[in-house]
Amino acid sequence: MSVNRRTALVTFLALVAGFTLIVVYQHRWSGEAFSAFYCGGEAVAHGANPYRIEPLRSCEHRVAPQTNPPDVVEPAPLPGYALVAFAALARLPYRPAALVFVAASLASVAIAAVALSELTGLPLVAPLGALLVVDGFVNVSYGEIPPLAIAALCVAGVYAARGRDRLAALAASAAMIEPHLGLAACLSLILWRPRARIVLAGAAILFGALWIVFLSLPNLPEYFTQVIPLQSRAEVPAADQYSLTWLAHLAGADDVLASQLGSLSYIALLFFGVLAAPRVARKLHAPALLVFFPVAATTLFGVFIHDLQLPAAVPAALVIAVALGASGRGVWFAMVVVSLEWVTWWETDRVVVVLSIFSVAAIAWAAMRERAPRERVTLACLAPIAYLLVLAVYVHLPHTAILTGAEPWPSRAALVPSAQAALNWGALIRGSSEASGATVQLLIGKLIVWAALASVLVQGIRTSRISRPPAPSRLAASLR
Asked: How many domains does the chain have?
């Protein structure tokens, strides 16, 4: 077994052990999202429509009755080819399938951390710390799929750095399980790595064939004309959303306009990231940024970007910070913000705070890698204390509600079983102050995160414009 595989295995086992302890002693695994994906897969396996209220709702309350009220259904708005994978998983009973998914998610976090460690030459503790809180704990606790997509992106970055374009394309194709994350990487490879095109074209044909064979041809236009638009509108006021859609809603835009602005911002930042990526990658001597930089760009105000997708910006931030050397301190600070996310519903959670202390210490240790060992230890100990002080201030920020306009939305009782599941979900969000409430504190937290994401992109662009870029760092040497 190679060193990297051995490291990934040890990391995976450590994550499994730690997560198991949290689940056993804190009863923390809800699997809310996984139950929706599992039931979407079951619907596909039985030849039913996975985007309608039924049979999705009946399945969710059968396998995970504690997750939502009896009349609520959580949609599974994944593209058809992604649900085919869950259809295979749904052949297992729910609990064994959940165990398989959790193991795959933790393995994905381990793979991503090892890949980023290999790319940057940093000790494994640094990328693992950066991914631990949201990607490694929050996402796995809810049964979300970003860990799978982020791991695929990190592997694609490693192969892109090695010049193995076809394997990079294969990994980027796997990231399309979360399309609004994987699309940026795939487009960048199509444009800038010609050898990747045949693989990406083959993946597109395969995905389309799986969709048509397992979900039928009429389902394809339904997904783009009904499922996606309704899901986007349903989530307009969602408090955990970091897209321009939420900000436009806060400013008084109606649901349709807010959703359209979010989509336009995603398209604009997608093309910005893809077009800027080759210059940034060349100037920083970091070919992996061909994959990472466009993805990070789409996380800033991108459509349907929630707190759970923000760790997709960590690979770009980490690579840029290392490439910039001593001038990259600002990127390290930004990475702390992106890695922890100042969201109100996690601010005082004991597990999250403990994991955040480790995360901040690990990032500080990596950021001060050029300092003397004693100074590094001191700073790694002081950084979590600074984090706790900032958190104490943040907790006491005003919780004053920001009033927003409420547009008419169908009640759950008025929806027929064949209606789109997103309509039911939108009614739940609008009826819950926790799910849709906007406060001054929440807005400040999001502004901090947006500023951190923007600073990562600005640092990359500014560096690409200077006449004397940073000297090749350990980024290049680590892959020789």
From this structure: 1
